[in-house]
């Protein structure tokens, strides 16, 4: 986890390092989500339907909703993964703490919700495939791959939600402490007031001070 800036990101305006970027756990896990989404909707779209005469049948127990559900959540997951990868790139450039907070909350909410949808999808596809009593000549391996990678996607999206939750817990505390202490540093020494013990300035004595120190002066009246 990064700890240099607000919500786990680096300091805004810092130099971009592509090697460090691709090694970040959030980026790696998001890329895996993107890849799994391609596999799921690719398997269902290419071999999840069987043409019988003039009618197409979904291999998941002829349940078209199962095929559409698997393709739907995977296409949205594919697009969302690309969006969040772009967001990870721009995350370092977000100078506003509030903007980073909104991004982290969006990541947390979407990733957690999509992990749940993939759990539902895995259960739905596996259940319908278990009820299929027709031995289709092709597509069985693609259907099984779609079910398997739907199961894997549960953990990848849950992992994204976990990292987002860690970012949210970290919050702006680390960034505020480091930046505030660096920018607002109290001076260790203070300038003494005029005439203080540490002052080496010479000031002129106030007027008539010498007369007060010499005492009263005798006054004689002139003789006529």
Summarize the helices and strands and which ones pair or pack.
Elements: H1 18-22, H2 25-47, E1 49-52, E2 55-58, H3 64-91, H4 97-131, H5 140-170, H6 173-183, H7 209-214
Helix pairs in contact: 2-3, 2-5, 3-4, 4-5
What does this structure look like?
- With 224 residues, the protein is mainly α.
- The protein has seven helices and two strands, in the order H-H-E-E-H-H-H-H-H.
- The chain has a two-stranded antiparallel ribbon with strand order 1-2.
- About 5% of the residues have low confidence.
What is the ordering of alpha helices and beta strands? HHEEHHHHH
Strand order within the widest beta sheet: 1-2
Secondary-structure content class:
mainly alpha
The proportion of residues forming helix, as a percent range, comes to 55-70%
Question: Termini separation (Å)?
Answer: 105 Å
**Number of DSSP strand runs:** 2
Principal-axis shape equals elongated
**Mean residue pLDDT:** 79
The largest pleated sheet is described as: 2 strands, antiparallel
Query: Any low-confidence stretches, pLDDT <50, length ≥5?
Result: 175-186
C-alpha-based Rg, rounded: 37 Å
Number of helices: 7
Strand residues, percent: under 5%
Characteristics of this structure?
mainly alpha
Write a brief structural summary.
By secondary structure, the protein is mainly alpha-helical.
């Amino acid at each position: 986890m990064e700890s240099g800036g607000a919500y786990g990101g680096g300091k805004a305006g810092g130099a971009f390092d592509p090697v460090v970027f691709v090694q970040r756990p959030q980026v790696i896990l998001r890329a895996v989500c993107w890849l799994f989404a391609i596999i799921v909707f690719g398997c269902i779209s290419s071999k999840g339907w069987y043409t019988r005469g003039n009618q197409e049948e979904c291999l998941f127990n002829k349940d078209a909703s199962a095929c559409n559900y698997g393709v739907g959540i995977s296409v949205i997951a594919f697009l969302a993964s690309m969006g969040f990868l772009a967001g990870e790139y721009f995350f370092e450039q977000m100078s506003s703490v509030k903007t980073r907070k909104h991004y982290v909350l969006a990541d947390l909410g979407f990733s957690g919700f999509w992990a749940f949808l993939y759990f539902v999808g895995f259960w739905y596809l596996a259940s319908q495939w278990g009820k299929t009593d027709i031995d289709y000549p092709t597509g069985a391996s693609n259907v099984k791959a779609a079910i398997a990678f739907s199961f894997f996607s549960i953990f990848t999206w849950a992992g994204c939600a976990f990292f987002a939750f860690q970012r949210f817990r970290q919050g702006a505390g680390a960034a505020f402490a480091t930046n505030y202490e660096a920018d607002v540093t109290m001076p260790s020494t203070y300038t003494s007031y005029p005439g203080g013990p540490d002052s080496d300035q010479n000031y002129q004595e106030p007027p008539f001070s010498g007369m007060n120190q010499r005492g009263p002066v005798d006054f004689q009246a002139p003789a006529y």
